Amino acid sequence: MPAPPGPSSMEIPIIDISGYTVADAPKTSEIISALRIACVNPGFFQITGHSVPASLRTETFQKLHDFFALPVETKKSVHRNQSASLRGYELVGEQKLDSSMGSDQKEGFMIGPELPPGRFLQGPNRWLDEGVCPGFRETFMRYFGEAWELSKVVFRLLALSLGLEEGYFDEFVGRKDSISMCRAHRYPPTTEAMATKSRGIGAHTDFGALTLLLQDDVGGLEVYHEPDDTWYPVAYIPDAYVVNIGDMMERWTNNRYKSTRHRVISPVSGRDRYSIAFFNEGLLDQVLTCIPTCVEEGERPLHEPITVERHLRNRYGGSY
Q1: CA 16 remoteness from chain centre
Q2: DSSP state of 307
Q3: Distance (Å, rounded) from C-alpha 317 to C-alpha 67?
Q4: Is 123 helix (H, G, I), strand (E, B) or coil?
Q5: Per-residue pLDDT for 181 more than 50?
Q6: N or C: at which end does the chain have fewer Cβ atoms within 10 angstroms?
Q7: How far apart are CA 49 and CA 198, in angstroms?
């Protein structure tokens, strides 16, 4: 399938997917076309018309505020270093995604499916006692379930945009042992002077297949546009999810779909910034062999086959 032309300047499209969810065929065709163009360039778009309730999104942000407001020593009792699957709390400065800017200025908390200890990135979550942060576990897991369902919808749209059968990715992203993670972040505010010397998250591309980001109205997410060597802000759109393609999907589509560098600027507003990123990375044993519709006759795949597990291990190893 030849790659459609993308926009010549940076645009972050806003795509209402409600037509697909109600099986409106003409609207679905428009959605698929818009999504295909967005995945080619810039590799980012925002979706509205989804099924994640506004009340749950608001409640989840509130519970995250409650958690991050706890004393550091309390949060460290569920530190991710005590988890073989990297679940739990992460201190400010522990991750570095851009070596030129120092450590990332954010703290985080990561969860995934509740599973017994097993393979890479699989295992149980780490939680504080209910009395320490009431409602945090129940709310965050409810949010995780809704975000997971939304990701499966977006993967179905991706399949259609690639000229594949609608359920092409269903097993890859829908099984209980698929690698899915939800990482919440708090970005402390900084000063104008320090904002040029540090980043909330340094410039990077996402490791996996697909990211769904819920951001608040503080702002700070920026996407890099290589043709004009410029960073563009991703505007806060009420009720929208920011969606971006990761390195795994870029590789799988023979570089048709673009994994684009992005970063987060530490807020100068005097307010903390909160965001929740959901990653659906699929099955560890899946071999990433070029999708058939992404190779033209006479063309060779650009990448050697690799398993999801090997790809993720390679990427996670260098960021902590």
Answers
A1: 19
A2: E
A3: 27
A4: coil
A5: yes
A6: C
A7: 35
CA 160, CA 174: separation in Å to the nearest integer?
17
Task: Give the H or E element holding residue 263.
Answer: strand 262-264
**Strand ranges (DSSP E) for 112-178?**
none
- As to burial, measured by CB atoms within 10 angstroms (0-12 exposed, 13-18 middle, 19+ buried), residue 285 is exposed
Which of the two residues, 150 and 101, has the higher pLDDT score?
150
Cβ neighbours for 53, distance < 8 A, ≥ 6 positions apart:
146
Contact 217, 307 (CB under 8 A): no
Structure tokens at 191: 């000063």
| pTM (two decimals) | 0.92
Task: Give me the DSSP letters along 236-247.
Answer: --TT-EEEEE-H
Burial of 199 from C-beta contacts in 10 A (0-12 / 13-18 / 19+)? buried
Distance CA 286, CA 284 (A): 6
Q: Which of 80-84, 126-130, 170-174, 288-292 has the lowest mean pLDDT?
A: 80-84
* Between residues 227 and 216, the one the model is more confident about: 216
Of 158, 152, 157, 84, the C-alpha closest to 124 is: 84
Give the pLDDT confidence of 18-76 residue by residue, as tens digits. Answer: 999 999 999 999 999 999 999 999 999 999 999 999 999 999 999 999 999 999 999 99
Beta strands 230-233 and 221-225 are antiparallel
Cβ contacts of residue 27 below 8 Å, gap of 6+? 18, 19, 20
Q: Give the three-state DSSP class for 190.
A: coil
Residue 131 structure tokens: 């009395």
Sign, CA torsion 18/241/284/223 = positive
Cβ atoms within 10 Å, residue 282: 25
Closest CA to 199 of 225, 224, 227: 224
Longest distance between any two alpha carbons in the chain, whole Å: 63
Q: Which two tokens stand for residue 224?
A: 């890099």
Least confident range of 112-121, 132-141, 165-174:
112-121
Give the separation between CA 64 and CA 114, rounded to whole angstroms: 19
The helix or strand, by DSSP H or E, that contains position 160, with its residue range, turns out to be helix 136-161
